[in-house]
Design goal:
Structural class: alpha+beta
Number of strands: 5
Distance between the termini: 61 Å
Strand order of the largest sheet: 1-5-4-3-2
Strand content: 15-25%
Bound molecules: zinc ion
Number of domains: 1
Shape: elongated
Radius of gyration: 23 Å
Largest sheet: 5 strands, antiparallel
Order of helices and strands: HEHEEEE
Number of helices: 2
């Protein structure tokens, strides 16, 4: 049977088998750290999404525009992050960052769109 260690300070735990922390201080430390990590992750992803939206916003002065992939790359667009997708009846999938989106076209072109409600 492996020794039970405190999840926060890694010291061996005494007493009850299902104990996870030495005491409330260790428990609070651990939970605060977990929350910080989660908050950082959320903040980073939000930042990327906001930047993606800014890039699209700058490139779409009207309601739609065709650009090369290079244009998006140079502007720092991150294709791994989007808020939602929209599939048309013809099977094309638009990727949206909030109200701005793009549709991948042939030959590394993209159709950028702005969704007005
Ligand atoms: Zn501890």
């Amino acid at each position: 049977m492996a020794e039970n260690l405190c999840l926060d300070c890694q010291k061996p735990l005494m007493g009850r088998f299902d104990k996870k922390f030495c005491n409330d201080v260790c428990r609070n430390n651990y939970n605060n750290q977990q929350n910080r990590d989660t908050n950082n992750l959320v903040r980073n992803v939000n930042g990327i999404l906001r930047k993606n939206r800014r890039v699209l916003q700058k490139l779409v002065p009207e309601d739609k525009r065709k650009v090369k992939k290079l244009t998006l790359d140079v502007a720092g667009f991150n294709f791994e992050y989007f808020t939602n997708t929209y599939k048309t009846k013809t099977g094309q999938t638009y990727f949206f960052c909030y109200d701005y989106g793009y549709l991948p076209l042939d030959n590394d072109f993209f159709l950028l769109v702005h969704r007005n409600n």
